[in-house]
Amino acid sequence: MENFPRPVHHPLAEDLSRRQAFLCSITPFQGLPQSEIATVAANLETETLPPEHVLFAQEETVITHVLLLERGRLERTIQANGQVRVEEILETGRIYGGISILYNNGLSTSSVRCLEETTVHWLDRENFFRLCAKNPAFAGHFKATLREEDKRLAPAPAAATGIPDLEAQASFLSASVTEITQAFPACTGATPIRRAAELMTTSRQSAIMVTDDNGQPQGIITDFDLRKKVVAGGLNSDTPAAAIMSTPLLTVPADTRIFEAMLTMMRRQVKHLGVLRGERMEGMVTERDLLLARTPSPIMLAHGIHTARTTAEIKAGYAQLPELIEQLIVSGAKADHLNSIITAFTDAALTRVMEMALESAGPPPAPFAFLLFGSEGRREQTLKTDQDNAIVFDDVPPEAEQDARDYFLSLGTRVCDDLHAIGQTHCENNIMAKNPEWCQPLHQWQLYYRRWVASDDPDRLLNANIFFDFRLGYGQEGLCKTLHETLFEQLAEYSGFLRHMARNTVSFKPPLGFFGNFVLEERSDRKGGLDIKSAMRLVVDFARIYAMQGHIRETGTIKRLGMIHAQNGLDRKEHDELVHAYEYLMFQRLKHQARRITRDGSTPDNYLRPGDLTQIEQQSLKEAFKCIRIAQAKMRLDFFLNFP
């Protein structure tokens, strides 16, 4: 189901139909698409409560579910200045809890009790957040209904309105994570669970850090831990906190960018990150903090992929990537932000696809690594990237090798076909783990790399380029490390190999004519377009060759250039100009692809039309191409290519 985790239970068809009709009759659900309403209905929990039942206590109850009132009446009271007053009577169709979740750290703003037998539906907080993130009008309803005295609760401007403040967001992702860090309560592992829960309530936070006697973080207890392990698990409230804490508490340094913290949450599937200043815990940042700051919500979409049960569910989440990227572009995200978000999505999809494939195939007969090559290997995927992958498995006894080959080829075929089904197209050149040539034991892969490095055939080198940008996608890191060691050992033996690669690289030119005009494509399907991918490939090749020369294992182009500079392979000016050129080209490429998908409804490509660009953008492109020419000139000198 699109954008949601699995339903809590499977209601009968007639119950589901009744819930959908109910949702269609109440604000703000009636404004949602029918497909969304059907998904919400399947995720509701229904409960009938007796008269006088107290649901929420003002400023005490931590709200984990939004209440939707289908039948009966609820009394909502507020205590202020020592007096309790009845604020209103809630009747059929009313909602309670959304404002508390969005604007009051999840604490109930009122006390609520049943006046008569009452039937309610519960929508969990996670799914409520998803609806707010995906449907701005839905989120805006809750801000619009804030009472005047409640407006002090809002923790951030524009929270839940769905209307981005572009000036504020332009630099938000690059700001320090301390901008949204909050102080959280802490306790030791010996603290009784009851006391830990009290500290969470009085501090109005959804979690508490568990530390050792020296104050160093050991773990974390969240609302979810209390519900699942204590309430549902029937634990005694005097049980030590250490018994239910989740470990470890992931931490990031205080100078971490918000964007990097977001990626950590996505990749590690966590909702809380500790923030360290030196060795001192400064506080925590939560998934909710990012939502209230009105960033587009890649964390939630990635979570939907991680929890998917079918390829159809993965595809539904993956299909939202272009729109998310366009939102991030508008929000001021940089090219490396965008690449990293796309990479996190594709990695999440691969992990989930691989998990499902392994569940079906059974335990592998040997340790293995699913390798990613090319732009995936560099973590520089765009919205038009096909698969480039392979499987390397540990060497097994000769008598067991054929069975291992059969297993991993079957696994590779399943994974590649599933990735294709969710939107990552098959490789045109068949460089995939479903091809027996690229599903091999370790010794065969080592032989491949030795042959490539020993070759002086220009065409063979050109075709092998993609295999020199590789990283682990899934499996055993040690196999990937062994291949890197093999590569560098071979490079030390065949010093002329890099010169051959450099000669190949400088034989291609950026699309800029002698008089500074763009060189445009002439083929009918690309006529008038500017091939930005080919221009970027020249920077990729430049960084790869110097990185291999310096035995740099990093595969990302920008990081490679930084390490080359650190090894004195580039001076500061050369480094900065080449990085700026590459980032600008990547940004324009991603923006072009996102617009083709979200606005034109067409297939993304890599051919910019200069007429679609402003004069400033056109001039910036020309400057980037000139920078690439200068880098190629440096390569000619460094590798003696001006001589026979």
Number-wise, the strands total 20
| Spatial separation of the terminal alpha carbons | 62 Å
Low-confidence stretches: 1-10, 148-170
Shape: elongated
Please outline the major beta sheet.
4 strands, antiparallel
Strand order of the largest sheet: 1-8-3-6
Q: Averaging pLDDT over every residue, what do you get? A: 84
Query: Class by helix and strand content?
Result: alpha+beta
Feature tags:
644 residues, alpha+beta, disordered N terminus
Please characterize this protein's 3D structure:
By secondary structure, the protein is an alpha+beta fold. It is about 45% helix and about 15% strand. The chain has 24 helices and 20 strands. The strands form six sheets. It has a four-stranded antiparallel sheet. A hairpin with a 5-residue loop joins strand 10 (about 205-210) and strand 11 (about 215-220). Helix 12 (about 310-320) crosses helix 16. The protein is elongated, with a radius of gyration of 28 Å. It starts with 12 loop residues before the first helix and ends in a 6-residue tail after the last helix.
